[in-house]
Structures
1.
Amino acid sequence: MTTPAPSIPTRPESLTFERLRQAGMALAASALTTAAWAVNDLPGGPAVRQFDLPQPATRIAAAQQDLHVMMLWICGVIFVAVFGVMFYSIYAHRKSKGAKPADFHESTTVEIVWTIIPFLIVIGMALPATKVVVAQKDTTNADITVKATGYQWKWGYDYLKGPGEGIQFVSTLDASQRALSDAGKPQGDNYLLKVDEPLVVPVGKKIRVITTANDVIHSFMVPAFGIKQDAIPGFVRDTWFKAEKTGDFYGQCAELCGKEHAYMPIHVRVLSEEDYAKWAEAKLKAQLAKADDPNKVWAQADLIARGEKVYAANCAACHLPNGKGGGAIKAIDGSALVLDADKGKQINVLLNGQNNIMPAWRQLSDTEIAAVITFTKNSWSNKTGQTVQPAEVLAARK
Amino acid sequence: MTAVLDHGGHAHGHDHAHDHPHGWRRWLFATNHKDIGTLYLLFSFTMLLIGGVLALGIRAELFKPGLQLVNPELFNQLTTMHGIIMVFGAIMPAFVGMANWMLPLQIGASDMAFARMNNFSFWLMIPASIIIVASFFMPGGAPAAGWTLYAPLTLQMGPSMDAAIFAMHIMGASSIMGSINIVVTILNMRAPGMTLMKMPMFAWTWLITAYLLIAVMPVLAGAITMTLTDRHFGTSFFNPAGGGDPVMYQHIFWFFGHPEVYIMILPAFGIVSQIVPAFARKKLFGYHSMVYATASIAILSFIVWAHHMFATGMPVTGQLFFMYATMLISVPTGVKVFNWIATMWRGSMTFEVPMLWSVGFIFVFTMGGFTGLICSVAPIDTQIQDTYYVVAHFHYVLVAGSLYALYAGFYYWAPKWTGVMIPEWKGKVHFWLSLITFNVTFFPMHFLGLAGMPRRYADYPMQFADFNAIASVGAFGFGLMQVYFLFVVLIPAMMGKGEPAPQRPWEGAEGLEWEVPSPAPFHTFEEPPKLNADATRVVG
Amino acid sequence: MSATIPSHSAAGKVPYYFVPGPSRHPLMAAIGLFFVVLGAGQWVNGSGWAPYCLAFGLLWWAVVLKQWFAEAIHESESGLYSDRIDISFRWSMAWFIFSEVMFFGAFFGALYWARVHSVPELGNLEHQLLWPDFKGLWPSSHPGATGAPAGHVEAFSTMGPWPLPTINTALLLTSGVTLTIAHHALREGKRGMTIAFMWLTVLLGFVFLLCQGYEYYHAYTDLNLKLTSGVYGSTFFMLTGFHGFHVFVGALMLLFITLRLQKGHFTPERHFGFEGAAWYWHFVDVVWLGLYVIVYWM
Ligand code: HEA
Ligand code: HEA
Ligand code: CUA
Ligand SMILES: [Cu+2]
């Protein structure tokens, strides 16, 4: 299915907006604070004082923008016409000017006219919109299929089909930026948009993104691609994009998903086909090398060291770095369950979740789960001396 | 205390030294529609201030990027409680208060049909709002899943979620009883000669609104009951592992939620439809089509709910159906706008404060309507769903729509309520500065949304900083104007300061409410009045 | 506050539209509900004091309601309620029942959605990605089937229409007939017969509840069908449970009407209290028929 959209970057409307923006910028800058924030436009992400939809990087996004421009024009014209009449009347038909009230108050003809005309206008708006809806929903014949899983609060990517199949990783907000946010000292053009590992795709290929979630609803949004698709736990949904140019593109989670909702960005890196192939090859190799053998027997100190990293990346957001939890979040430090001699209890909680609040962590590897349990059993005031080996987790997984 | 029954035969008003109950009993045990109306209005204004302070918390945090004042948990609580308090505590009860005060007067009834149940509806709001506001102090804090309370996020909330669910149940019961009262009052208590098609528009819009309420509040009750049982009793309504579906919550919620937003705007249409003719000194243009348009909006509102769910991934046919149906609503809404303007056309207009708010309403609400229409175009919504564009849209229709109309109604009817005129300059300052600060607050949010700033975000990329700063400054200005209203307009008027109001303070105002003295006596129309042919005057 | 009823009204002059004087009942009832809501919200979270708070609130509320109704009945019997008020009662009862219909609509809607959309969807090819062993079957069409991934919902059997639900249908339908007979008798002034048939109706209502209680017991013990049995169990118990609760309320209404009849209330011409309760009962009946067909048969 091809979309009816025109070619991407040079369109006269965006010029109009560009000028508007410049003017607005000058105005705002003279009036307001922002000089204080040293920040520039982020290519593929938001621009400073951006007025309009982002520069489209796909035909769909361009088509959406065209629709928006069309809507603005139609609504603008109606607005000016309708309120032109109203303000003329306000100007001319006022008592202070000696206006005497007329006596008409009913006319079936005009009622019909101003029912039919808006009706026709609405149809005129709906027709082009319909085409874009149909194009947007057509996820068939994708070159690459990637599954994006929303976790509280990060995105997991699995390359399911096409070149790069088998690649799997999790993409998290850069921890230093999270700290900057807490400190109230934001900086950088990609503030809150920087991740440890971007989603990588080739240019000019149709990428189907399957979304789902592990805990609550998230939403996968990349404005420049014109996609936003909720990720619903237990269900799969899909959307697609075909980037027309290489570069970095940014989005954020767009469905309230708990406290760190503002901190689960999406970064998509679009590479040329050759670069993508190279990346995929390297990535797969590295993945293979890193893959843990669940039957390997680890030394406790190694598990604890590994577990500390796992904890920081996954658990600290809720249970806090000091393991104290808070509010509805249980403490790990001193927890009876963690201290329990039966290791199976904690393994079970990690694999299956608890109380709707603690999510299941099945997506972590056996080694990671074993490591983080061993870490929690031997940190802070917890001194159990117990070690959990990956094989035990594997056995509990069934 | 027998005065209420004391009628028939002898003319009333002369032997009523103890015309009405006094002291605290008068308010706590009220059965008089005017007193209950006053209680509702004061309650809702209080909630507006509380909800407004929460909004200022949001705006203060968003004044610049980075976290300064609140942590993300608290931020989400602020957002959620702001939405819930404004919708259920401020706007809806305010319209109910106006209905209580004005409907019996407008249709020539002695009171509401069920006076005690009327008071019960009011008093139910109090425990509900106490519990809702107190939920900030419960373990884990207030609910933080957004005012839409989407599952499964609600399943992660602490005990305050259950408190809120039960509180919303009794608020719903209050709304249903209040609506039944209004429906019955309108259907059964009109004075002879006040046929349905002669009723003032405010009565018409409220009749239709009341039907919407009766139809959808129970559905909300169902949705949050399922949330409750999923939380505590192991049901799987929204749990896929048991065959349920989180999206099902959204369908049920929005089946309530979309009519709900019209519940908050139709009475506003009614108020404006009364004020514009009064100050244009010309009859409302197209009364009949106004009634039909209102009914069409209400009926259509039942088949558009999924326009809030374009991003959930509906089938193409679903998206198209809901897109078309939604766009259709602009047709009857347009009819209303055109009729207002036609009413103004070749009138003899003056611009006292109620008229200013009404014209402001028409102008700014229409902007909100247009942005709604833009949201309804599914592909555009893909870009702006869950961004600040939507926040801008609904504040244009809710603040510049519902709230402006409430202020219009206040300035219009306050002479009848308090017996004093509100000095013009006071209202004009309130209007103009509110208009300006409102737009300063919410206009930049359109840009933020288009640029992709998601809503319910405690912190944001720095490129969004400027517009957020402008919005925050505007919000404090707008808030200040409402404090101004409280101290400069409301309290003096309630204390009876100001010029005594004549029975009909506005030259062109029509309707039975202007046939009784100002302030309206405790009891009015105890015997049905005799009306003139178009049911706007009492004769004999 | 019966003091508000003036003597001249009792002397045969019906006010055009009776407006009660100030009343403490609404405020008191709201206070009762405050404790109900507070208690209920904490109870589900396991607070020790909450059940007492809830019970106290309910008791308080019931006492207030009793006083409130007693006052209204007194007013009614003193002849303060004109025909116009009668019409108000009719409209209000009708729209109240409509709101109840919408409440059940939400749960029927949930059943529809689960059955037609979510369960089949979870079992389709796409969703094998997440739920490799999900059976997208609606349980009631395959006895013993569990529309859920293995291990998430224990196996259970579904509740067929035979025999209990059918007996219950018969009970409710019969109660509708006996109620109508009572109504005709009342209109013809045969008070003894009215009361007899009212008792019969109330009895049928309570027998229905007993049967339903047994049905639940059977479900839990023999069929392993529980509230936790996936979305089938959820919709089954919530729909039939809320219906049962409405039967209970309706039966209480009829019971009180019967007691009032015994006290000599109502006349062959004016008896909206009776009719309102009867409308409610018929509404409960109709909902049951919907349940019987949709939940048990289909
Ligand atoms: C008073 C409340 C109110 C009102 C009146 C409206 C009115 C409308 N709303 Fe709005 N809406 C909300 C309150 C309201 N809304 C709220 C609270 C939300 C967010 C909820 C949440 O998620 O928290 C929301 C969200 C919302 C969305 C979802 C956005 C999203 O989440 O992505 C959509 C999408 O279609 C929408 C559409 C509309 C439309 C088409 C109208 C129409 O009724 C507008 C019709 C009016 C006009 C069009 C202007 C006048 C007409 C003319 C002058 C005639 C000529 C015009 C033409 C022919 C074009 N609204
Ligand atoms: C129903 C009506 C209504 C009204 C009247 C308002 C009024 C306001 N709202 Fe509204 N808002 C909603 C309904 C409403 N809102 C809803 C439904 C949501 C969605 C919630 C959700 O996402 O779940 C929302 C969300 C929402 C957000 C988005 C939050 C987010 O996504 O995280 C923001 C952000 O700016 C905002 C701001 C404001 C402001 C500044 C006002 C102002 O108009 C308020 C002005 C009033 C006052 C400020 C009170 C008076 C002041 C005082 C008594 C204090 C003293 C004052 C000073 C010191 C200045 N609101
Ligand atoms: Cu994930 Cu918001
Ligand atoms: Cu809507």
Note: The two ends of chain A are 44 Å apart (CA to CA).
2.
Amino acid sequence: MPDISSPPPRLELRGITKRYPGCLANDRIDLSVARGEIRALLGENGAGKSTLMKIIFGAAAADAGELRWEGQPVTVRDPSQARELGIGMVFQHFSLFETLTVAENVALALGPAAGDPRQLVPRIREVSKRYGMALDPERRVHALSVGERQRVEIVRCLMQDIKLLILDEPTSVLTPPEVDELFVTLRKLAAEGVSILFISHKLGEVRALCHSATVLRAGRVTGHCDPREQSDLALAQLMVGDAEGLEARYPKRSGDKVFLDLSQLSWRNPDPFATSLHDIDLTVRAGEIVGIAGVAGNGQDELMALLSGEECLPLQAARIITLGGQAVANLPPDARRRLGLAMVPAERLGHAAVPSLSLADNALLSGFQQGLVRHGMIQRGKVSAFARRIIERFEVKTPDMHTSARSLSGGNLQKFILGREILQNPKLLIAAHPTWGVDVGAAAAIHRALIELRDAGAAILVISEDLDELFQISDRIGALCGGRLSPLKATAKTQTSEVGRWMTGQFDTAANAADAAPTSTTY
Amino acid sequence: MDLDLISNILFAMVRTGTPLLLVALGELVCEKSGVLNLGQEGMMLFGAVIGFIVAFATGSLWLGVALAIVAGMVLALLFALVAVYLNANQIACGLALTIFGVGLSSFIGTAWVGKPLVGFGTLAIPLLSQIPLLGRMLFAQDLLVYLSFALFAVVGWVLLKTRTGLVLQAVGENPAAASAMGLPVRRVRLLAVLFGGAMAGLAGAYLSLAYTPMWAENMTAGRGWIALALVVFASWRVFRVLLGAYLFGLASILHLVLQGLGVSIPSNLLAMLPYVATIVVLVLLSRDAVRTRLYAPVSLGQPWQPGH
């Protein structure tokens, strides 16, 4: 029986079960969050975290189990009912309206009772000041940075009478200093009695912030613990079981001859809401891995497009990008591939692979220059042999090579795509977010494959948001911010804190210093 | 050119622009909610023929107007059921609606072709209509034109100043997020489509009861399509819709004016002007990408269903 000394937990889940066709997303999950508690919900992609949050927030219905709110059983039918209870959620992909101002966005969420957006402006200022989140209520959302947008979402929750705040991977879009600021805010909220559910797979952050943690694996709770008393390795094992390579260290190399050379690349993006590139200088040597950090949307996609040839520069600018000394900036993708370029784009389904085609056909997609086509006719036998080699070499778990790309898990498909590129013996491999959404075991395998390719003498460029990954595998590292590239430093001679500063744009480049004398032409 | 002539041109410009203004305001609201309804021409014609028949049979012009509005809404409801609730392709449904409306209106209107009717007369407001130049244009029109002024003010106020306008814009930009906030996305879209239908019906009634009080097959002559282009021309901003409607009004009477002045350009060429102007303006506007992105409803034309 509850008594005064121990009030019922704010939220308690008992035996929550949710089944989707072909998968049991949540299997008898028990979880509770007390008043003022920051509880982490840890787990790999696909462990069932998002489903559970949807059930709490009323965006999905549980098949079985009970949800208790402050001791009372409730059924949350839809998000607006969740909000009435005092549950606020900050989504991983923001649910903001870009063409509206901050105040208008808040007014929409608060409902008709909130009144005119302009009357909300002082209240928004007050809340954002109280919790240390700088925010201008009158700016339009499309002009805000990702970090600022997240603040809008949080402030929007705080303006309501909030008792439980759910944050879905909130730090994945933030730079390290922004993460620190967020944590200050969250601790303040918890101190005022707000309960917080913090969903993440970043162990360091969970240990720094959370009072308690619930670990999910394959839809089940595998443990409750105090993350402050656990090592990263112990937490990781709860999350993924006993996978190898969790803590692998790779020797650093300094590389050989320069293979990829970008000099003073400036490119104006025709999409006014997207990033343009400014004065990018970058070299990648044969036999080294160069890592580019940065929060998504700071020019990564644009840089990838210009490197792959999906965007071309005019002929007179051809020398801005060279591969092994040859000017290529004006060449289309297939011409660049002939010179030894291989690409692993960020988006697996739809960019790197055609979802509805079989693995064999997908192997042909970028491997057609490997003698798989003769006189315009596809050599089916050779394509099959190529696909089989990829599947065997990279341990892709699939029934056979005729399975469609769509039906593979993210990690398996990524291994297949990476394998397809590596088996073409590239001289330069460019990979974007190679282990995004991939489980730890597969990520370790992908890292090993990249290191092997490096040691075989290829130049490798890795673009990633995951700083830990970049520090683990790259030999030199830099960061993109606002379409500018920081200086590159040997990974061994820098630290996360420095790269974190670069990610926020705190670096001097020759171009930054020489505002008076523009050095390059923008294309 | 004397003042009288200019005053007359301005008067005719507003008269000709009014049906465009009415349809375009309706379509603007509809598109703001994320629904592209290409059926404007069909809804207009249906409104025009129903309005005419009712007015002819009952002798009441206002009853004709009222039922024309209802007629537009009935077709809009049909469209909304299929395109909003059943997630059918909006472009295909809109085209079908236009084809349906054109056929249906000429079918039920056959017996009324060429029948005479005394339509809405002009109602000059004393004193104000005597203002030089602008007096006739603004204060010597018929009642439906005055109604269009009022409707413009109401739509503008709702879109720019009220929560309803905010909800409409939110649903049109990001229906998934709007739904997560508890906004009834489909109901908002249904109401917006119905409003569009009502305005198209009213515009049809204006044509058959005030502008040229009679019924003729296909008497809208592509005005529904011009109104669609007008919304893009206005880059989804309500003041520009007004401006655009009158500009197109001016373009369509220009050949009459020039003929009157004795300019010898073939009138067929000049009659093309509004259509040419539409294309030119659309091309010019697509260059200003920032502005367009700021006001265009992002989810325009995309069906949305809950739970995804």
Note: The longest strand of chain A covers residues 23-33.
